[in-house]
Design brief:
The structure is a single chain. By secondary structure, the protein is mainly α. It has one domain: Arc Repressor Mutant, subunit A (Orthogonal Bundle), CATH 1.10.10. The protein has 3 helices and 2 strands, in the order ββααα. Strands 1-2 form a two-stranded antiparallel ribbon. β1 and β2 form a beta hairpin. α1 packs across α3. The longest helix has 14 residues. It is globular, with a radius of gyration of 10 Å. The chain starts with a strand and ends with a helix. Belongs to the Bfd family. It comes from Stakelama tenebrarum. This is Bacterioferritin-associated ferredoxin. It holds the Pfam family Fer2_BFD.
């Protein structure tokens, strides 16, 4: 599933960034070499990161 249309970031990429230590959407995007643009994706990215943190 696509999380960020502006940057073409997929859910799996956000999950991998979270597993690598990203604790916020901004950190995850930086890990991927991108930054949020319009911001509509940030709540969904936060949710994914929270799921990964809870599973760890």
């Amino acid at each position: 599933m696509v999380v960020c249309v502006c940057n073409a970031i997929r859910e799996q990429e956000v999950r991998e960034a979270a597993r690598s230590g990203a604790r916020s959407a901004c950190q995850a995007y930086r890990t991927l070499g991108r930054q949020a643009k319009c911001g509509q994706c940030v709540p969904f990215a936060r949710e994914i990161i929270a799921q990964e943190s809870a599973a760890a």
